[in-house]
Amino acid sequence: MPQYKAPLRDIQFVMNELLDTETHYQHIPGGEEATPDMVNAIIQEGAKFCEQVLSPLNQTGDQEGCTLENGEVKTPTGFKEAYKQYIEGGWPSMTADEQLGGQGLPGSLSMVMSEMVGTANWSFGMYPGLSHGCLNTLEAHGSEEQKQTYLPKMISGEWTGTMCLTESHCGSDLGIMRSKAEPNSDGSYSISGEKIFISAGDHDMSDNIIHLVLAKLPDAPKGTKGISVFVVPKFIPDENGNPGERNSVSVGSIEHKMGIHGNATCVLNFDGARGFLIGEPHKGLNYMFTFMNIARIGTAIQGLGSAELAFQGSLEYAKDRQAMRSLSGAKNPDGAADPIIVHPDVRRMLMTQKALAEGGRAMIYYAAQQADIATRGQDEDARKEADELLGFLTPIAKAFLTETGVEAANQGMQVLGGHGYISEWGMEQIVRDARIGTIYEGTTGIQALDLLGRKVLMTQGESLKRFTKKVHLFCKEHGDNKQLAEFIEPLAAFNKEWGDLTMKLGSAAMKDREEVGAASYDYLMYSGYGVLAYLWAEMAEVAQRKLEEGTTEEAFYNAKLQTARFYFKRMLPRAKAHADAMISGADNLMDIQEEHFAF
User: Fold this and answer.
1) Which residues, listed in sequence order, are joined to residue 232 by a DSSP beta bridge?
2) Contact between residue 456 and residue 396 where contact means Cβ atoms under 8 Å apart
3) Residue 9: how many CB atoms within 10 A of its CB?
4) What SS3 class is residue 327?
5) For 48-75, what is each residue's pLDDT tens digit?
6) What integer is the mean pLDDT of 318-329?
7) DSSP code of 95?
8) Is 461 exposed, middle or buried (0-12, 13-18, 19+ CB in 10 A)?
9) Is pLDDT above 80 for 293?
């Protein structure tokens, strides 16, 4: 299994040189505490924990998995002890409200920690990761009593949280769910129903688990407008706020799944469980979007982590493994063969992984900055703009980065050849773990419909223009820089085409709504390549400027330029195929009769 090594230099590059986090934090309440020295110390300590504690447990968790014993889930060897260290390190409380026991640091800083935790051990990272979304939903929509009851211990990490949406007969179509909530005389509700695919649904690492459950009241309207959300604790807190009576929530089974074996994906049965309404009736789905948007960015991190870990494993192997001679002459004349890193096709795979990992890091950190502004910014107009920009970027980050993360994981396995297919090397585990990322928190298709249908066409293209305007200004600013022309010229052309294609799709959709669904996947992937092109051009500009100013890190900045060049020459052209497909029309999908699918 690749032993994770936190890419600290690249993390620093994106935070400090690309996104100027120091200046950004000065404009965010709580950010004044996040001085460069403090941020660097936090990241260094986080890296140490991930490398020394979590990474060694990654393969163990996969091999052992979780077990169900007497109705309780037991996590793999070492997970419980690692979680204790995680709490002692103060990691769960880093960005939470100080009045509730948090440290009040900017949320974007937690994304850096989430990346390192997730790359080192995705299965482990899901346990505290889901708690953040649960916590944010309660903080935004819960009553004062609910906040005081649940948030302090969730912030400390003593309690964890989940979200319970999916049922066996409905996946993303939550409007047809069957879970019910009957009012009790004391103001609570009796929750009944079965929820499936509940990540971290039960475990032995925390004292209590707080479930956010979607259910329908007796008078609920049909469809998604009739969904309410309830807080349902595993143990009902007593008068002192400690875990008390066991609630009527039980684990029906642990799902047998392709990957992420170290995380307990549970079937949960609610048999008249006592629950408490969050907010107003029938507004649960709107409230849960607070949770789901956080979870979608978290899932995007899985795509980045898959690319990074696969790159680290395959790069180490490619430097060491010897096979054949270089076509241009022996590069290791004293050996029986040359290391495979000299071969062009191996380099193609390594460079693809590198471009996706480093580009994905820039995309997520950029989105995280927008989240900082949207949630903590002091200027109302800036908050609104950041929130809308984040809404545009979220489906792209979630879907594009998980799709390309699977690609990078597969290429990591391919670099190792037959050894990549063998479990002991750990590369096939990355493939299995990565695959779920394109499915949960809304499949790629769902994200694509959200992007093209809701975020772009329903705003008459305004959300797209908000981003393409930034790209246009960047291209205009550096249009005279001949050394950047190889990046600026294709980026400017892409940016114009992006708007033109969107107008064509909008016109087609006015005549036939099926055109939206037919084009959405290709539109999302096209958009993903565009966002990454903009970020790689930005990174190339920073690298070129540093080299011109003079630096002792020429190798690092030259590698940035070379990777940007690879991306523009070999990866951005993929967008042309997506462009052709998205405007080809819905008829090539919809004209075939259902019975003709048979063979």
Assistant:
1) 211
2) no
3) 9
4) coil
5) 999 999 999 999 999 999 999 999 999 9
6) 95
7) T
8) middle
9) no
DSSP 464-519: HHHHHHHHHHHHHHTTT-GGGHHHHHHHHHHHHHHHHHHHHHHHHHHH-THHHHHH
Handedness of CA 286, 291, 293, 295 (dihedral sign): negative
The pLDDT of residue 305 is above 70? yes
Nearest partner of 259 among 92, 402, 45, judged by Cα? 402
Cα(483)–Cα(374) distance, integer angstroms: 35
Alpha-carbon Rg of the chain, whole angstroms? Answer: 24
pLDDT at 598: 80
Percent of the chain with pLDDT over 70: 99
**Among the listed residues 140, 241, 244, 159, the one whose alpha carbon sits nearest the alpha carbon of residue 200:** 159
d(CA 14, CA 340) in angstroms, rounded, equals 30
Using DSSP, state whether 568 is helix, strand or coil.
Answer: helix
Extended beta strands in 5-151, E state: 67-69, 72-74
pTM attached to this predicted model: 0.96
- Beta carbons within 10 angstroms of residue 341's beta carbon: 17
Catalytic residue among 115, 358, 441, 541: 441
The residue among 596, 350, 574, 355 whose CA lies nearest residue 342 is 350
Q: Is 106 in a helix, a strand, or coil? A: coil
Which amino acid is it at 199?
Answer: S
pLDDT in tens, 202-239: 999 999 999 999 999 999 999 889 999 999 999 999 99
pLDDT for the residue 543: 98
Residue 441 is among the residues annotated as catalytic for this protein: yes
Contact between residue 452 and residue 386 where contact means Cβ atoms under 8 Å apart: no
Residue with tokens 């393969």: 59
DSSP string covering 520-533: HHHHHHHHHHHHHH
Alpha helices in 142-198, H assignment, sequence order:
144-156
Within a 13 Å sphere around the CA of 64, how many CA atoms are in the beta-carbon half?
18
Residues 118, 299: Cα–Cα separation, whole Å:
10
Q: List, in order, residues 6 or more apart from 142 with CB less than 8 Å away.
A: 150, 151, 231, 278, 279
- CB-CB neighbours of 236 under 10 Å: 17
Structural element, H or E, at residue 194? strand 189-199
SS3 35: coil
